[in-house]
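May I ask you to review the protein record following this short note?
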Amino acid sequence: MEKICNWSQNGHQNMAQYHDNEWGFAVLDETKTFESMILEIMQAGLSWQTILNKRPAFRQAFSNYTIEKIAQYNDYDVKQLISNKEIIRNKRKIEAIISNAQLLSLLHVEEAFSLNAYLWSFFDDKPLIMNYHTQADMQGFTSISSTISRELKKQGFKFLGPTIVQSWLEALGIINSHLTACPVKQQCENFFSKNYTL
């Protein structure tokens, strides 16, 4: 049985810090949820190490992840982002992020919709605890991530396939996919119980 999530043990400090202090810790904040969505979309087809290395640049490029500001981006802003060598210059990803911000900003106003609350609602507002003993046991996507991906697509959200959604839910702590023997797994459970359980 592996005792720690070995994807975090690549010798890079920011990867270990992300695993130990963020990944799997429950998030209930809308802006942080959207930030995580941006990072997960940008990560598609790339390494997570690449995303963490560029994380400060993403924050600056995307207006500190302020949803309403991103929703106002126009063609000029898209061109600026595509020319920004500090981030991932993928037009399809960039346009999907802006489109998602526009949709979410509209839903905030018209329906008092919370993307974070929406995601948690699929799990009765408590984390789903997975029991993975080795990295090989982990799944790229699950039936629930496929369902959520399909429902998000119906809402109009883009570039959120089952694999991206699975990774996103894990990052937000909605699904706790730390290996069973990983000490951070229990820390995530304790964090949720202390901060969010009524």
